[in-house]
Specification:
Layout: E1 2-6, E2 11-16, E3 19-24, E4 27-32, E5 38-51, E6 54-68, E7 71-76, E8 79-81
Parallel strand pairs: 1-7
Antiparallel strand pairs: 1-2, 3-4, 3-5, 5-6, 6-7, 6-8
Length: about 80
């Protein structure tokens, strides 16, 4: 699936991902390929991106995620890359 992570300042990540774990406002949740369409609020915490067999961790300070037709867009308030 295509993943794009952006903040008001910059684009943090853009590319293919096989799995993304988000810090939801009510707990962690995972998005995989062919996930159902959704929009969700994100809390402060660690976002884990699995891409090309490697895991990248990004600390976000809240935001929103949209999942639609294997495209995931994260609008984060701010990030602190791990």
């Amino acid at each position: 699936m295509q993943l794009e992570v952006v903040t008001p300042d910059k684009k943090v990540f853009e590319g293919e991902a096989t799995s993304v774990v988000f810090p939801g406002s009510d707990g962690e949740f995972q998005v995989l390929n062919n996930h159902a369409p959704m929009i969700s609020a994100l809390g402060k915490g660690e976002m884990r991106i699995v891409s090309s067999g490697k895991e990248e961790k990004v600390i976000i300070d809240g935001g929103v995620v949209e999942v639609l037709q294997n495209k995931v867009v994260v609008l984060a308030e701010s990030v602190l890359e791990d």
